[in-house]
Design brief:
This protein has about 425 residues and is of the alpha/beta class. The chain is about 35% helix and about 20% strand. The protein is built from 14 helices and 15 strands. Strands 5-4-6-8-1-9-15-14-10-11 form a ten-stranded mixed beta sheet, sandwiched between helices. Strands 2-3-7 form a three-stranded mixed beta sheet. Strands 12-13 form a two-stranded antiparallel ribbon. A hairpin with a 3-residue loop joins strand 14 and strand 15.
Length: about 425
């Protein structure tokens, strides 16, 4: 990939997001550098009091009330993030050929929220299905979040969602890169979204697995690598990127956040839930080979670690298989410690939160590590306080998901 022609090199020129601790990249980044969590007390139907990463963005900034009522939370998040990414990119949107824009949105799951809500309301009509919402089908089809973005922005190029569990945010980016290289589009609007906190089923399921976090102080509940970690904090959120070919970005004098230098996806094929460190390590190594980079060239690894006892330790084992015991000056951090696990949006949000490091030279910390688990010890693990460096050249972003799906994206400095 290092020898590619400029028209095959893909760069990030716009970022739009909503996270539990910020509704723009500058806000999000500031929270990460200041150690501010977005996890709060939360209550959901049937399950009751719990903890969650809750977003607070203006739903009506780019939609009317009627559109919000008709659509989905995931679609609304995608619309907000897409508009913000377009604004951030400084594209002349009014004169863009929208048949040449592709929309590629990663999701963990979709439709559960709407189905649960509609069944709950139908109960009040003694389950008479004549009162079932006629909006149900367009709300729950798998392409919904991307489709809502297409309708809202008048984009007539291809749109689809990618179901890739918690690897989906990275998968959306990877798909955007591939479609640009194939010539299928000239602009890719891609990333991931999550509406997970609005379904009681996800909380109940993690609880039944013994994998749902508890803590007297919500802000301290998400604690990857800490020996007292006790599970996942479910979060909502979204992040959409504008990707362009380097030639096009340079032609219009665009601000460039970084170049997508390499990527990889593979499968464990071993278990529904438990990860395989060997396959994770292979995914990282494949991304490095495709980027034409060595492990020493990576400045920051943003870990996937979700705060589960087995998952964090397995990922650290995978990282040790690639970097050995010395780390080779690579720094390791984690963004879920601030916002919880944003599922389909996780990979995209976590990459975005690290991108400003190319400019400010700071690796944000992993917070809430009071006692480091010996199984999670890594040379270069940045805990509790940010680390200032002379220069950040490349960021490697891990995102892994249920049913053994692994994804890695590498972005390098331009």
């Amino acid at each position: 990939m290092a020898e590619q022609r400029d028209e095959q090199r893909i760069v990030i020129t716009g970022v739009g997001l909503t996270a539990p601790n910020g509704n723009s990249l500058p806000e999000f980044r500031q929270a990460l550098l200041e150690g501010r969590s977005g996890v709060t007390a939360y209550e959901t139907r049937y399950f009751g009091p719990t903890l969650a990463g809750v977003c607070n963005f203006d739903e009506l900034r780019y939609q009317k009330r009627k559109e919000v009522r008709r659509g989905t939370r995931a679609g609304g998040i995608g619309i907000f993030c897409s508009h913000e990414a377009i604004n951030d990119s400084c594209l002349d949107w009014a004169n863009i050929d929208r048949s040449r824009v592709g929309i590629y949105v990663g999701v963990t799951e979709h439709g559960n929220v709407e189905t649960e809500n509609e069944i709950y309301l139908l109960k009040g009509f003694d389950y008479d299905t004549q009162y079932w919402s006629h909006h149900h089908n367009p709300r729950t089809v798998a392409n919904n979040p991307a489709g809502e973005i297409s309708l809202n922005l008048g984009i007539t190029g291809p749109h689809y969602t990618l179901g890739a569990a918690c690897a989906a945010g990275n998968a959306g980016i990877i798909q955007g890169v591939q479609m640009l290289r194939l010539g299928d589009c000239d602009l890719a609007l891609c990333g991931g979204v999550s509406e997970s906190i609005h379904t009681f089923g996800i909380f109940a399921s993690f609880h039944s697995q013994g994998a749902l976090a508890k803590h007297a102080e919500p802000a301290k509940a998400s604690r990857p690598f800490d020996i007292d970690r006790n599970g996942i904090v479910v979060a909502e959120g979204g992040c959409m990127f504008i990707l362009e070919r380097l030639t096009d970005a340079r032609r219009r004098g665009a601000k460039i956040y970084g170049e997508v230098a390499g990527y990889a996806m593979n499968s464990d094929a071993t278990d529904f839930v438990l990860p395989d460190p060997g396959r994770q390590a292979e995914c990282i190594q494949l991304a490095l080979r495709r980027a034409g980079m060595t492990r020493e060239a990576i400045s920051i690894v943003n870990t996937h670690a979700t705060s589960t006892s087995s998952g964090d330790a397995q990922e650290c084992e995978a990282l040790r298989r690639v970097w050995g015991d010395n780390g080779h000056h690579t720094l390791f951090n984690n963004t879920k410690s601030f916002i919880g696990h944003a599922m389909g949006a996780a990979g995209a949000l976590e990459l975005a939160g690290n991108l400003p490091a190319f400019q400010d030279g700071v690796c944000h910390a992993t917070i809430n590590v009071d006692r480091l688990d010996p199984q999670c010890e890594l040379p270069g693990l940045v805990i509790n306080q940010p680390r200032q460096t002379a220069r950040i050249d490349a960021i490697l972003n891990n995102s892994f998901g249920m049913l053994g799906i692994n994804s890695v994206v590498i972005v390098r400095r331009m």
